[in-house]
Amino acid sequence: MTEKATFGGGCFWCIEAAMQELRGVESVTSGYAGGHVSNPTYRQVCSGETGHAEVVQIEYDPEAISYLELLEVFFKVHDPTTEDRQGPDVGSQYRSIVLYHDDEQREQVEGFIDRLAAEVYDDPIVTDVEELSRFYEAESKHQDYYEKNPTKGYCVMQVRPKVKKVRKEFEALLAE
Q: Tens of pLDDT along 80-108?
């Protein structure tokens, strides 16, 4: 039985590529959530006027990787203390956000953030924690973006370092 997790931490290409490295992750889909416009397009989301964030929805096997392990990787590959910004990407569509699927996930992410705030970060964590109401899949050209475009400038400068960090710091969680 698979479960789902939905995270946003800057450009979805970065989070997608990082999560695809992990064992138990069956699929990672880039998309949009947390806004007020139905069926938004990439162009609309990039305008910052839809309220949506660029997010990924992860389908995973909880017997192989836990929700808490996914949270550990997610919070390691982005900065949860910068509001509406990750690296060169600026705007509310790039905010740090966890969209929970049930009360158990909500409790886990709230506890996880409390622990990070107490033990890891000096600056306040600004990650939004919201119930997922609707996930909209991004256009096909945004799916598996790093895999399809590893030599494009953005991928070399932004995505590749996150993938390398996952491979180095989460070796025990990597897919074979």
A: 999 999 999 999 999 999 999 999 999 99
Planar angle of CA 105, 111, 112, nearest 5 degrees: 85
pTM: 0.96
Helix (H, G, I), strand (E, B) or coil at 162: helix
Q: What is the largest CA-CA distance in the chain?
A: 41
Name the DSSP class of 159. I
What's the mean pLDDT in 48-70? 98
Q: Judge whether 11 counts as a catalytic residue.
A: yes
Strand partners, 57: 6, 29
Q: How far is CA 56 from the centre of its chain?
A: 5
Q: How far apart are CA 52 and CA 47, in angstroms?
A: 10
Q: In what order do the strands lie in the sheet with 96-100?
A: 128-131, 96-100, 3-9, 53-60, 25-33, 135-137
Number of continuous H segments (helices) and E segments (strands) in the chain: 7, 8
In the chain, the domains with their CATH numbers are 3-173 (3.30.1060.10)
